[in-house]
Amino acid sequence: MKRPIGIFDSGIGGLTVLKEILNAMPGEDTIYLGDTARVPYGTKSAETVTRYSFENAKFLLKFDIKLLVVACNTASAYCLPQLKEELSIPVIGVIEPGAKKAVEVTKAKRIGIIGTEGTIRSGAYFDAIKTIDQSIAVFTQPCPLFVPLAEEGWTNNQIARMTAHAYLNDIKKQWIDALILGCTHYPLLKSIISDVMGNTVTLIDSGHETAAEVAKCLMEKNLLKTISSGESFHRFFVTDSPERFRQVGSRFMGTRLNNVELVNLED
Amino acid sequence: MKRPIGIFDSGIGGLTVLKEILNAMPGEDTIYLGDTARVPYGTKSAETVTRYSFENAKFLLKFDIKLLVVACNTASAYCLPQLKEELSIPVIGVIEPGAKKAVEVTKAKRIGIIGTEGTIRSGAYFDAIKTIDQSIAVFTQPCPLFVPLAEEGWTNNQIARMTAHAYLNDIKKQWIDALILGCTHYPLLKSIISDVMGNTVTLIDSGHETAAEVAKCLMEKNLLKTISSGESFHRFFVTDSPERFRQVGSRFMGTRLNNVELVNLED
Predict the structure, then answer these.
(1) Are B178 and B105 within 8 A, CB to CB?
(2) Is the pLDDT assigned to residue A267 strictly greater than 80?
């Protein structure tokens, strides 16, 4: 099966999900689209994010992708059901896998969620958890500064530490034992978030859980790439500033990004 | 003269410019457009920012504006000459007034500029200063976290202070005596920036200088509103999330924002 996996995000953050996918399935071919001209989605309305998401999906479908990963929490929150309904290939978002894992992990039945304002406001993680287990208590906290901190590479300095304390102090007092990193940028700040929350709280990386879900889905549908299919390729498309994506993205992926191409979705 | 002044910005930051305009000319009518669906401009390419700016201008021209203020440093940096050439009304950006004032103020002939990555990369302030006085030494520093700090309202806490130190330490060592706040969000952090830089450095608020330029231009062209023209009106348009604009924007303006209307520029 030589068809690639398609992944889109509002920008750079989804690369942490791609990284997890490649860790789980190293041989797979991938096409990544970062909508960097219209980033961030987190502060935009549901209508706007839905429109953008369909444009992104349409672009990726041109590459005959076998599965679509919506590697953006805001987009997953706002329009995953619609994408699933209208597309003929499997569509996997980052909300459900993260929520499912958190429910598995919590013994206290108390889960925290951090993310962008949009993701938190959407209530998507909250709803996904409550659908599985109504009795679980859920606590949320938007952390707007985590995204620029991650992009700046300030992931382990005193400013990041104090910011983490400022955002997490209240949620820490709620005796949660699982915390969902509900934004794809946040895994870069994992070590600081973990320090602040302490070792009684398990951090749930939605990207990691999503990759496991993708592997399971491809296996079930017999769509995994066979080893004999040759070398894998990874293409990256952005709607603006390939240079910045290359630079910051390399930090996110932990490897140099080549093949970053500019594309205009509005044509 | 009952025609309003038109002002656009990529989002909320331009409100600090509007505030200065209303301080300088309290009776004027204004139409403000915040392109919140496509914010930020600072990380986008010159082509994209130029296209968006012309769409913004086109929208404002429908209101028979008598003067256009480009209250966005990135847009001013990338396309002010083009806007001036194609529009039949006066167009004033935020770069030149700030640069001019800094040149007036500096005795050491050493000026610092802080702004978004896009503004700094564009070299617009640098060029504007060098055009006036080739002999002035110019030092620049992008400060990406200042924007989310201002929007979060974290303008006077320890995190803002440490961030200011981290960004400004190098530029402080250059013995500058004037520092241009080259981003409309930064006036909210003025007191912390001033503390870090010390009292030998004059902070130049581009918005304040732009307002003075607008007043001068309207006076020269006899376009100032006469007192007898009755009460003034202020309308606000955004391309996304009026609620968030109302909420954060009220902090920027120091007064409650009414009349925030949603508009779709892509129709």
Answers:
(1) yes
(2) no
End-to-end Cα, chain B, rounded Å = 31
Task: Residue A210: name the closest of A4, A3, A7, A59 by CA.
Answer: A7
Instruction: Tell whether the model's pLDDT for residue A46 goes beyond 90.
Output: no
- Looking at 3.90.226.10, 3.20.20.70, 3.30.930.10, 3.40.50.1860, the CATH number of the domain A5-94+208-262 comes to 3.40.50.1860
pLDDT digits (tens, 9 = 90+) for B18-51: 999 999 999 999 999 999 988 888 778 888 899 9
A5-94+208-262 and A96-206 have identical folds = yes
Give just the sign of the alpha carbon dihedral B184, B148, A248, A115.
negative
User: Which DSSP letter does residue B161 get?
Assistant: H
Domain B5-93+208-262, CATH:
3.40.50.1860
Candidate from B36, B151, B158 with C-beta closest to A162: B158
pLDDT of residue A200 exceeding 80: yes
Q: Do the Cβ atoms of A45 and B147 come within 8 Å?
A: no
Q: Is the pLDDT of residue A188 over 80?
A: yes
Question: Which CATH architecture does the domain made up of B96-206 adopt?
Answer: 3-Layer(aba) Sandwich (3.40)
Of A263, A259, A239, A244, nearest in space to A9 by CA: A239
Q: Delimit the domains of chain B by residue range.
A: 5-93+208-262, 96-206
Look up the ipTM and state it: 0.86
Q: For a pLDDT cut of 70, what percent of chain A falls above it?
A: 98
Report the candidate in A184, A172, A161 with the shortest Cα–Cα distance to residue A70.
A184
Which tens digits make up the pLDDT trace of A97-144? 999 999 999 999 999 999 988 889 889 999 999 999 999 999 999 999
Q: With H, G, I as helix, E, B as strand and everything else as coil, classify residue B77.
A: helix
Question: Residue B90 carries which side chain, given as an amino acid letter?
Answer: P
Query: Is there a contact between B45 and A240 if contact means CB atoms under 8 Å apart?
Result: yes
Task: State the distance between the two ends of chain A, measured CA to CA, in whole angstroms.
Answer: 31
CA-nearest residue to A149 within chain B is: B145
Please answer whether residues A2 and A231 qualify as being in contact, where contact means their C-beta atoms are separated by less than 8 angstroms.
Answer: no
Show residues of chain A in contact with B161, CB under 8 Å.
Answer: none
pLDDT at B123 over 80: yes
Instruction: Give the least confident one: A58-72, A172-186, B29-43, B162-176.
Output: B29-43
Better-scored residue on pLDDT, A186 or B38: A186
B247-256 in b/e form (b: 16+ CB < 10 A) is ebbebbbeee
Give me the residues paired with residue B147 across strands.
Answer: none
C-alpha angle with apex B48: B43 to B53, nearest 5 degrees?
A: 100
Residues in A touching B42 (Cβ below 8 Å): none
User: What distance in Å separates the CA atoms of residue B260 and residue B245, rounded to the nearest whole number?
Assistant: 8
Nearest residue, CB atoms, B148 vs list A145, A159, A244? A145
Farthest-apart Cα atoms in chain B, separation: 52
Q: Indicate the burial class of B51 (C-beta count within 10 angstroms; 0-12, 13-18, 19 or more).
A: middle
